[in-house]
Amino acid sequence: MTISTTEKIGQAVIVFLLLLLCVSVIYPFLYMLAISLNDGADAAKGGVYLWPRQFTWINYEIVLGNEVIRHSYLITIARTIVGTFLGLLVTLAAAFGLSYRMLPLRKAILTYVLITMLFNGGLVPYYIQLYNLGLVNTFWVYIIPNMFSVWNMFVMLKFIQGIPDAVVESAELDGANPVRILFQIIVPLSKPMLAALGLFTAVFHWNDWFAGAFYVTDQSLIPVQTFLQQMLNASDLSVIFGSNTNQEALARGAQAKNVTLMSIKMAVVMVSALPILCVYPFLQKYFVKGVLIGSVKG
Fold first, then answer.
1. Considering the domain boundaries, does residue 37 fall inside one?
2. Is there a contact between 203 and 195 (Cβ–Cβ < 8 Å)?
3. Does residue 103 lie within any of the structural domains?
């Protein structure tokens, strides 16, 4: 097949634009990585863009050796695992129940659920509700309010409705109850969709800083993203080292090694971003297969 000159020019322009997009996405990541691996005082002079000029591990040693950061990291990991599991379980159960077309008031329930996705009561009523439920300043403020996602429920609902009715009917004829049908038939057939939505849910829990900043005052319960947000607003290293004697001595030792707030910030950003980035390659194949099918089949 012969390709015309116009088509070749068009393809070249598309390739150039895609390369430009890739560079615009990758460069900030490489810049932060270079700063985090560079001597802080040297990086403050400028000129460090893609590769560290004076290589050092001290920034990561301080970040990973800090008890507050380690604890916030554990909170984030626990929140992501528990929140993703319960979020998928509750949302899938709701979608499976609403997939029965003979369910009484099914259309009314779906309409009510859709309204909650389009409108909300506002931040202040939401905070009051969390306070009345006793969730404020607890670990469960990260989990319970996010156990159900309307958008994920509709995607799951469309996916389940795309499963042939004969499969479910044959299981019912064999005496299977709804719980058995859900876990032995629906879940195995929905693995691509669950993997994709599970990744989106995990990314939300991992990256969320808002809940920790507004609904939690106990520093021992803040996730790593909230800690990073506090660091970005800090003017010195006291947010890392605190103010007691031992921590001040550690801070003086770190400053003697030319550690700066910017270099520590970049190290925290890399530590908080890399784990969730490493998950993407393993679930990438499920994106189109899972989400697109669940969105199109009806």
1. no
2. no
3. yes
Name the domain count of the chain.
1
In 219-273, where do the E strands start and end?
none
Three-state DSSP class for 223?
coil
- Name the band, by pLDDT with cuts 50, 70 and 90, for residue 238: low
Closest CA to 250 of 70, 61, 71: 61
DSSP state of 183: I
| Assigned domain for 70 exists | yes
Confidence (pTM): 0.80
* Tens digit of each residue's pLDDT (9 = 90 or more) over 153-167: 998 998 888 888 888
Residues 6+ apart with CB under 8 A from 38: 48, 52, 53, 54, 55, 56, 263
* Contact yes or no for 79/143 (Cβ under 8 A): yes
Q: What residues form DSSP beta bridges with 38? A: 55
Domain that holds residue 201: 58-296
What's the helix, strand, coil split of the chain in %, to 5? 75, 0, 25
Confirm whether 1 is domain-assigned: no
Q: What size, in residues, is the chain?
A: 298
Distance CA 66, CA 271 (A): 13
pLDDT at position 297: 44
